[in-house]
Amino acid sequence: MKAWTVEAWGTPRDIKLADVPVPEPGPKQSLVRVHAAALNFFDVLMIAGKYQVKPPLPFSPGCEMAGEVVKAGAECAFAPGDRVCGQPGWGAFGEYVLIDNDRTDRVPDGVPMRDAAVMPVVYPTAHVALRRRGNLQPGEWVLVTAGAGGVGLAAIQLARAWGGRVIALAGGEAKCAVCREHGAERALDYTQDGWVDTIRDHTGGHGVDVIVDPVGGEVYDLALKVLAWEGRAVIIGFAGGTIQKIAANRLLLKNASAAGASWAGSPKKPACSS
After folding, report:
1. Which pLDDT score is estimated for 274?
2. Rounded Cα–Cα distance for residues 49 and 45 (Å)
3. Residue 171: which region, alpha, beta or left (left: phi > 0; alpha: psi -120 to 50)?
4. What is the pTM of this model?
5. Of 189, 144, 181, 135, nearest to 162 (Cα)?
């Protein structure tokens, strides 16, 4: 089969399309023909050897996908022909990939594979950030940084579905427009000065109750300035390249909290009920 392959740590431009053996499923695994795979920032980190998980070289990246089961292990929960999506850990950027039972879900009829490919990681990450760690309540204000990214768009959609009022940050007007198209009532360019004051004005001085932040660094630091009383500032990642030193005084003065949210790093799938 063909697969994009990482032979040495580097950038996405360094990966190669190679011929590799089709893997055999273990007892509790499916061999899935990949129809669609998602592209995420953590894929870039994994290719560079900077992610918390470092696969043995060589390997094929790609951590979430959707496809059709073509072969099943003896104790597999799925059968050839089943439409599934899953989180293989890596390997989704190939024609076929192995996925464990507990990292696989069925794709309902009528759901396009390209939509299903973002369900294993992106939407659960947003779910955990908003509900489990952010404790979002109907009517609360939500600030989503990097709103035009995968987790950002998922967070905008889920927050709106659960009754939140969403403000998004993104880099440039084109990305801000994408945020508005997906449900943000206000989208601001965080590369321009003044967005902190604009958020204060837009919320009538209340600030935001939940921050969902995949960016880190200065963006997170500034976002804390508009965190509301007993707000929750949820950390998803550090796509901006800098791990912030949290201004704990801002949390103290607002009886607020900072929390981390990780789906991929969970020891097992968290129960995500609506």
Report:
1. 33
2. 6
3. beta
4. 0.86
5. 135
